[in-house]
Structure prediction request, 479 residues.
Amino acid sequence: MKPRRSTKAMFAGIAVIAAGCASVSDQEASQKALQLMKASFSERGQAKLDRLDQDEAQKLCSKPPSHELSKETSARIEKANLDSIRYPADGKFIGDWKSGERIAQSGQGMQFNDDPKRPSGANCYACHQLSKAEISYGTIGPSLYNFGKLRGTSEAIQRYTYGKVYNSQAFTACSNMPRFGHNHILTEQQMKDVTALLLDPDSPVNK
Amino acid sequence: MKQPSADALALAAGALIALAPAASSFSQSAVDEIAKYRQQLQDGNPAELWEARGEALWKTKRGPRNASMESCDLGKGPGVVKGAYAELPRYFSDADRVMDLETRLVHCMTTQQGFTFAEATRRPFGAGSNRSDFEALAAWITSESKGVTMNVALSHPKEREAYQLGEKMFYFRGGPHDFACATCHGETGKRIRLQDLPNLTEKAGAQLAYTTWPAYRVSQGELRTFQWRLNDCYRQQRFPDLKFTSDASIALTAFLARNANGAAFNAPAIKR
Prediction:
């Protein structure tokens, strides 16, 4: 028994060292890739090099699908992002769905060739189905057709929907969806308008 | 509410849809019509105009040293163009660096023709009458690899390093929109607006995408190289400007080119 146990312990020790090495070298590669990128991009228009500085979520979400995040890490990302949401001071979540539709159609904003003075769009249709009339929609995200009809328009749903637009990773760590409020892509009013597009019973999304 | 990366794509998709019969909901017929449109494009490819200009440029004596590029070594020996692109990027010992095609062309322009780096790289991408020599040279050189099996080696340590860093870049999320290459190109069967997205993490998707660049872009009236493709992806990702022939651009190209190994190269192609 005794020798066996010590062999086991030795193997365990080797495994720990090996895992340690692997993760260090992976970290080193990440560090090297970042240095490489910093030297290989140049600032242009509004796109400065600080766009390569990752926050914790971006860092943790930059892994191939084979690296699954632990439950604890996912929960940590979601909590940090949830805590950062700033809900409207006036307590109102619903704006104008017609303006929301225009925001959902526009992919303008924040590219190095975009005019920073013009408002950004959210380009929802690039990835989601929304209204039935718009057939040119993408499929990276789920269909949002009938979003409000299926969920109702309770205060809780309004708050959730606004929060999801503001910071998608508050609810799904590493979501592909941009964090429109968190990263100042949309204004508060714009996020209210998009929330209206999703929830207003008069919106084509719910027809 | 996602992925504002494709305004240009969306515009083009709208143009395509105009060709399709009116449909009240997205339907198979719209997809069929787009496929038909793409098929019709294959009949004649204006890339041939770039190819002809590129071949002439290759053979013309230019620069302070009044030299042609005919002794430029693209990896298979001085002046060998046939099949060279299917093995790029690769490590070049004379420069001690992994290079893709455009980087190697700049190398030959500076070392053989005597241009400065600034002179050589003055116009990486063309716009109308301001034509890019790289787009012409790349069109011709890549056409000389048509039908050749992609065979990018990872035998030199710097080739392996470029591949590893390119993979890191592929999954790197950054910028105000949190986009990585993988955001749009990490799953099979997805699309932006109506534009199908190749899954570059899978053999079939990587092969189909990589072997069809450079391409004549109908929507732009220009022949575009792989350096352009990466630069414009990063623009839509809201990143800063990816420098022409930068090490990062070469690393990412090495990752994508290597993943296409085994497929027959099939460009210059024509795309909407």
Summary: Confidence is low (pLDDT under 50) at residues 1-22 of chain A.
